């Protein structure tokens, strides 16, 4: 999978840099072309001579070559690269990447990279656990970067905890899995609803829910990677897309989501309804903030929201595919199959709240897929990006019969 791929291996200054030598060796063995970019402090831990000998390319570290004054172009590197992996990523480099502090070649290259970026943190357990680091990692994740979580074990400090850089073999596996696109969606237009809806009570209050949008955005990223033309109709979320080529239509209420989704569905091949749409909305939004009256409790009258999935189910033409989600607590299978039929879906993805790690806000999910012709597929607990790949693989295998060339 890595044969011929252009990989930038970014190395920052941590003890785990010794593992990067082996990582480089494995990448080269897997057929990748690797350009090493190392921070000034990275060079305190391993020598550029070893790295350039293994990669067959001069190591880039400074903005200019000391001898010739030649400029090392991070812009060219950013265009050349198919994937950038930063291993080890120290707390300091993570902070700089998160905030765009471009004071060395590694960070400028990261900021210029027009390719997926994989970050393998490595540091002492207290630094790793610190809210600053955690916040920075979350920021990087929200920009669409892939975090290769560190393992738990003995650290260079001899303390035991979370902070060990992931093993090189595993990092290579993450990269090759990423490039092993199995089934293509080239030429398909995919519309995905994601996140919650907010239904206004007054100018400052709303009815909403805890949906993070992570599942829908993961499906969008996976569909985009498989060549689809992707549009997300998104409720208010903090997740971001990794590429400006993924179209995002931001909406707030179910009615707005309905209008945008119906419009997009007209030309779509596939619609995946992962949004947690509020079932009801206040019958009217108060013009000004509802005041607290002394002895009166306000009564908010609710009206039914449109069921977007059911509406698309009615509009669906031959050849269009419609996928829904069911988040259930009781009678999970019965309820999921009932929704599948009632909304005229082709597939429904059930996540049961009885399963630990499944549902809202988590980074993982455990799903079962039911199809309109009574097939059932069970999956184990996986990360949301992996779940997204399972959903698309199942859809493609079952209904599209196209294989990646
Ligand atoms: O009926 P329930 O809300 O459980 O159905 C869940 C499925 O229907 C999800 O795919 C969800 O995105 C979709 N849905 C919708 N519009 C609604 C309610 C649910 O599109 N008003």
Structure overview:
The chain has two domains: 6-180, Flavin prenyltransferase-like (Rossmann fold), CATH 3.40.50.1950; 189-400, CoaB-like (Rossmann fold, 3-Layer(aba) Sandwich), CATH 3.40.50.10300. The protein has helices spanning 17-29, 48-55, 74-80, 91-99, 105-112, 125-129, 131-142, 168-179, 214-225, 254-265, 308-315, 332-342, 384-400, and strands at residues 6-11, 33-38, 83-89, 117-121, 146-147, 151-154, 160-164, 189-194, 199-202, 205-207, 229-234, 247-250, 270-273, 280-282, 302-304, 321-328, 347-352, 364-365, 367-371, 376-378, 382-383. The radius of gyration is 24 Å and the shape is globular. It starts with 5 loop residues before the first strand and ends in a 5-residue tail after the last helix. The chain is α/β, with parallel strands linked by helices. The chain has an eight-stranded mixed β-sheet, with helices on both faces. Strands 2-1-3-4-5 form a five-stranded parallel β-sheet, sandwiched between helices. The protein has a two-stranded antiparallel ribbon with strand order 6-7. Cytidine-5'-monophosphate binds next to α11 and β16.
């Amino acid at each position: 999978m890595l044969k011929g791929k252009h990989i930038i291996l970014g190395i920052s200054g941590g003890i785990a840099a010794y593992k990067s030598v082996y990582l480089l060796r494995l990448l080269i063995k897997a057929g990748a072309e690797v350009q090493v970019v190392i921070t000034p402090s990275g060079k305190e831990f391993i020598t550029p001579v070893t790295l350039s000998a293994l990669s067959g390319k001069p190591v880039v570290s400074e903005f200019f070559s000391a001898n010739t004054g030649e400029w090392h172009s991070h812009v060219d590197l950013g265009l050349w690269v198919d994937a950038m992996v930063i291993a080890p990523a120290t707390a300091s480099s993570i902070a700089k990447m998160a905030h765009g502090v471009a004071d060395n070649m590694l960070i400028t290259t990261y900021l210029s990279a027009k390719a997926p970026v994989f970050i393998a943190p490595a540091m002492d357990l207290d630094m790793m656990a610190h809210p600053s680091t955690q916040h920075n990692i979350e920021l990087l994740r929200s920009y669409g970067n892939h975090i290769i979580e560190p393992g738990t074990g003995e650290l260079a400090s001899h303390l035991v905890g979370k902070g060990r850089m992931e093993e090189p073999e595993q990092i290579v596996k993450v990269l090759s899995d990423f490039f092993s696109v199995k089934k293509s969606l080239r030429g398909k237009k995919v519309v995905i609803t994601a996140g919650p809806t907010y239904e206004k009570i007054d100018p400052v209050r709303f009815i909403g829910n805890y949906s993070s949008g992570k599942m829908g955005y993961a499906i969008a990223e996976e569909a985009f990677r498989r060549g689809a033309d992707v549009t997300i109709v998104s409720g208010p979320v903090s997740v971001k897309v990794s590429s400006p080529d993924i179209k995002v239509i931001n909406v707030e209420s179910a009615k707005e989501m309905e209008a945008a989704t119906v419009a997009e569905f007209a030309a779509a091949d596939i619609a995946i309804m992962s949004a947690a749409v509020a079932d009801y909305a206040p019958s009217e939004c108060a013009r000004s903030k509802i005041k607290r009256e002394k002895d009166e409790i306000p009564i908010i009258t609710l009206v039914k929201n449109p069921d977007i999935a059911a509406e698309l189910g009615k509009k669906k033409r031959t050849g269009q595919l419609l996928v829904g989600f069911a988040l259930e607590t009781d009678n999970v299978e019965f309820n999921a199959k009932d929704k599948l039929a009632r909304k005229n879906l082709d597939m429904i993805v059930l996540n049961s709240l009885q399963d630990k790690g499944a549902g809202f806000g988590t980074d993982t999910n455990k799903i079962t897929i039911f199809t309109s012709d009574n097939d059932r597929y069970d999956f184990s607990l996986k990360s949301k990006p992996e779940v997204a790949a399972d959903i698309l693989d199942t859809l493609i295998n079952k209904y599209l019969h196209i294989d990646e060339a």
